């Protein structure tokens, strides 16, 4: 690993606000850092740029492996930049935690988009704590906004907890699907529907077109079985082809129309307000855990009883409570 | 909601250890409770039953919606109980967090297995904190073991963080897949392969058989591109039909052979030892967060500044640090 260049707090702030991409990348690396000294600077930088954030439309894009996310984002991203907008793409990929990317290599992902000066692509951090991924992604997103990006895509894989985390930081959540073998209605879960603002059937090209149209009808019918959401938006079902671009313009227009409606009915701001509260809570968890594990007495105590914990000689939850009590005692002692 | 009946600590312990299913269910509800008084009893119950845990084989089963998990578990579960073993099935389903189950209803899931006296099926808790799901699932699993179950299935949906959490508590991780439209190799991620011990192509029946066999060959070839895992086990690729039962016996034998090999090479115990340490760390996080949010001063301080946090007038991360400092100050004051 190349040694990271450290900038001053003001250099980070000025660089990000002036839209300098090198500094933007360095600032994202800073917020991803686990070092307490970096964390403090990161918080200062975030607080300083915060007034310049919030102006982009934040779009979450998810779908299981094989659904064609990279191709979709590549094409859809081109459409966005051709509209004269600056686009940032952030990837959250917990599945590549212990490795990196797909078998065929991630180097070829979004090849043309990554060459486009109007787009900024930030690959997912790897080897990091699970809880932290989403917190850092949120901060990366805000840094991109402060750097002047008009649209942020947050890409995530699968349908699980990472999606719930991403849903907690975007304005619009888009689920990519494939036309399957007739079990669309079986597989689709209420929670997923409640989470997404649009269901897009990808790969609607060539001999898949008919199946995609059929799937679209089935989903659209199924959606009517659900109670109306708080924001009164009925998730849209559309087909598209990431390969030849069919349907992408309509998806972009639909997102524009969603944004307009949500701003008018007040949900857009309400949602962002809730998200700010979640952000605070995520950061509280992060701070509590770091101060716990960085406490030297705790570190020593864990090391001393590691064998007993691992062998099961002591109960893991009993030991956990004991350690938290030691931690609290330590805090009290600090004062004396 | 029916009012929950509270038992004494000893009643929970005796009931679980005697294999009483009503008490087992009540004990799982107890560990799922967020009430501090329940937590303390739950910890006592868990510590008391801990010496009687560890004897089952713990199998994680995952796959995206539509892959046929319920049908697979129904059939595979029957095979397990026909072997004379007692089976517990626990479901972790973050996607149904804001709702419950699939459109067509979860009532019909695993219908015959749920009627079988040799099987115990525990549906997923809903509306709970994300981080908590996995912690509780681990404790539910241990309670099932203490109640005498020989095999535990932990079912989860999608491929994301919940899988990583489940991987952290099972001995064997099985990924169900479908034969797709040739993009198997594109979609499969290194992280998923590194996580799973077997890739099972489901729905290998009727006109799908050839496609399933082809997919199996492709996956098996791809797996050879990966470095050998620490436990020297090369993930197996197999086909099966949850519908007609084809291939299930071979899967069960493969899991037996895995267990034997891992016990012999020491990995089985090493993996469980690491999992015990994770359990402790999960519980530490849980305790830190509960003592923070249950602190009356913190509660009041959050309420007082809620408007400012939500509007963005104060920086969420600045406020987080401030609250953590108040919390630490509070702990110090307690002593005086």
UniProtKB/TrEMBL annotation, chains A, B:
GO MF, one annotated term: hydrolase activity
Keywords: Hydrolase
Keyword Endoplasmic reticulum tagged: no
EC number(s) per entry: 3.6.5.-
Pfam families xrefs: MeaB (PF03308)
NCBIfam families noted in UniProt: lao (TIGR00750), PRK09435.1 (NF006958)
Family matches, as PANTHER family: METHYLMALONIC ACIDURIA TYPE A PROTEIN, MITOCHONDRIAL, METHYLMALONYL-COA MUTASE
Family of this protein: Belongs to the SIMIBI class G3E GTPase family. ArgK/MeaB subfamily.
UniProt-recorded name of the protein: Methylmalonyl Co-A mutase-associated GTPase MeaB
Organism lineage: Bacteria, Pseudomonadati, Bacteroidota, Cytophagia, Cytophagales
């Amino acid at each position: 690993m190349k040694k990271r260049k450290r900038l001053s707090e003001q250099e980070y702030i000025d660089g990000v606000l002036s839209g300098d991409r090198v500094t933007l990348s360095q600032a994202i690396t800073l917020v991803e850092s686990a070092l307490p000294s970096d964390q403090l600077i990161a918080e200062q930088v975030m607080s300083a740029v915060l007034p310049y954030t919030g102006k982009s439309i934040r779009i979450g894009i998810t779908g299981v492996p094989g659904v064609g996310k990279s191709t979709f984002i590549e094409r859809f991203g081109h459409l966005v930049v051709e509209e004269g907008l600056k686009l940032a793409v952030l990837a959250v990929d917990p599945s590549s935690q212990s490795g990196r990317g797909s078998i065929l290599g991630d180097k070829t992902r979004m090849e043309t988009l990554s060459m486009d000066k109007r787009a900024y692509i930030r690959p997912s951090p790897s080897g990091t704590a699970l809880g932290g991924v989403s917190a850092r992604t949120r901060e990366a997103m805000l840094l991109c906004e402060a750097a002047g990006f008009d649209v942020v895509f947050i890409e995530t894989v699968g349908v699980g907890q990472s999606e719930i985390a991403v849903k907690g930081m975007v304005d619009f959540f888009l689920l990519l699907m494939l036309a399957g073998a007739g079990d669309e209605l079986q597989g689709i879960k209420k929670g997923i529907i409640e989470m997404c603002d649009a269901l897009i059937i990808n790969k609607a090209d060539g001999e898949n077109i008919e199946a995609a149209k059929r799937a679209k009808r089935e989903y659209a019918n199924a959606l009517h079985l659900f109670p109306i959401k708080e924001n009164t938006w009925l998730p849209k079902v559309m087909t598209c082809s990431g390969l030849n671009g069919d349907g992408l313009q309509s998806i972009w227009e639909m997102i524009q129309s969603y944004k307009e409606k949500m701003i008018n009915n007040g949900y857009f701001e309400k949602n962002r307000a809730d998200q700010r509260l979640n952000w605070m809570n995520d950061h509280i968890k992060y701070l509590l855990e770091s101060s716990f594990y960085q406490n030297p007495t705790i570190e020593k105590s864990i090391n001393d009883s590691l064998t007993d914990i691992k062998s099961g000689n002591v109960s893991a939850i009993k030991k956990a409570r004991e350690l938290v009590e030691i931690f609290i005692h330590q805090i009290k002692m600090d004062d004396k």
